[in-house]
Amino acid sequence: MTTGIARLLADAGALPQGWENAFATVHRADFLPARFWAWHSDSGYTPAIDRNATGEHGRQAWDRAADEDLALVTQWDDGDHSGADPGNNPTSSASAPAAVARMLDALDIRGGESVLEVGTGTGYTAALLAVRGCRVTTIEVDPEVAEQARKNLAQAGHADVTVITGDGALGHPDRGPYDRVHVTAGVRHTPRAWIEQTRPGGLVVMPWGTYYAAADWTTVLTVHDPRRASGRFTDPLAFMKLRDQRATWPRTSFPDQWIDSARESTPDIDVADITGTLYDPVEFVIGLHVPDCVPRRLEDDESVNLWLYGRDVGAGDSIAVAAFGDGYTPQALQAGPRDLWSEVQTAYRRWSDAGKPDVGRFGLTVTITGDDVDQIPWFERPENRLKRQ
């Protein structure tokens, strides 16, 4: 029997070639918990949808959401959550089917590949890979999520999938080397293990992004040797980040005296130029030029302030704020080792002067030298490295 997801993807022209049988025979509903929260781009998260409940968020809503192109949150706050209301931070989910399909298509599966999957979640994508004939090793950092995925896979007839409880950033060398690494969590720093444990010619497919942008871009790296991989950004998407790579704003306030040593300047661009909607390329491209910079936009009826925090310089953190409002000249203040506002403004100017090229014209090279893993963004070709601030 063909699943609703297969029909959904086929009707939308989003069912990738070669994956028809997998999506037709693996039922997403078999991998979903009794309770989840659906994400709608226009209205945000729903209250809990519970197949054991009655009313508008009961069984009918559960069945409907299971076969829709929605991301379904299955865990909040690393499991420290209870009740029907959404928690503070979604930390595990069943990804939207169209995003799953795009990521799997990017893996270029022919059948028979050895695949390392990072981020098991419900186990649904591991089952899809298994139906394609892959030898699947999937790693999940959360013990409870991993155990439930094992049960889901076994009950759905995929007990041959190996589920490892552990840190996916370390890979799993015992079952390597791998032909493909499939990452289902947002990445900001590419772990060396994924390159080292992939055969030359193999692919690492991951949602990669920068700290400046919330969104990721599907990134397809070809592994050239155990020390180097390179490839382009393809499609925009948004995934929950690896747990140790989540962007965080400082929990404590900056010391009052930072403003006493701040350097003052007058912005020559507007805050709207360098911030956008989730998949607006401007934030992604600025992040390529300005590494380890976390923005925070605060606004009210009278003004808009863009705060920038540099997270790469330890105790000497850089900070900047640019203030815009009606009736006064915009002002920027920046302190610390980096001039973050100047870096961001320069990055925007370079992108704008180049004609605002699409993200698909950029790419990434990852190189391993000793203990260091360098991520080098480029434009058009790997030799054309971006000048980073």
Topology:
Elements lengths: L3 H8 L8 H6 L9 E6 L3 E2 L3 E2 L8 H8 L4 E6 L13 E5 L2 H10 L7 E5 L5 H8 L3 E6 L2 H13 L6 E4 L12 E6 L8 H5 L1 E11 L7 E10 L2 E10 L25 E3 L15 H9 L3 E7 L3 E8 L7 E8 L5 E5 L4 H14 L8 E8 L2 E8 L10
Parallel strand pairs: 6-7, 6-9, 7-8, 9-10
Antiparallel strand pairs: 1-2, 1-3, 1-4, 4-5, 10-11, 11-12, 12-18, 13-17, 14-15, 15-16, 16-17, 18-19
Architecture of the largest domain in CATH?
A: 3-Layer(aba) Sandwich
| CATH H-level homologous superfamily name of the largest domain | Vaccinia Virus protein VP39
Strand order of the largest sheet: 8-7-6-9-10-11-12-18-19
Order of helices and strands: HHEEEHEEHEHEHEEHEEEEHEEEEHEE
The level of helicity is: 10-25%
Largest sheet: 9 strands, mixed
Structural class: alpha+beta
* Radius of gyration based on Cα positions: 22 Å
Q: How many DSSP H or I helices?
A: 9
The total number of structural domains is 2
Low-confidence stretches: none
Give the overall shape.
Answer: globular
CATH C-level of the largest domain: Alpha Beta
CATH topology label of the largest domain = Rossmann fold
Average residue pLDDT: 92
Bin the strand percentage: 25-35%
Termini separation:
55 Å
- The tally of strands reads 19
Explain what the structure shows.
It is built from nine helices and 19 strands. It has 389 residues and is of the alpha+beta class. The protein has two domains: 4-184, Rossmann fold (3-Layer(aba) Sandwich); 250-353, Double Stranded RNA Binding Domain, CATH 3.30.160. A hairpin with a 7-residue loop joins strand 10 (198-208) and strand 11 (216-225). It starts with a helix and ends in a 10-residue tail after the last strand.
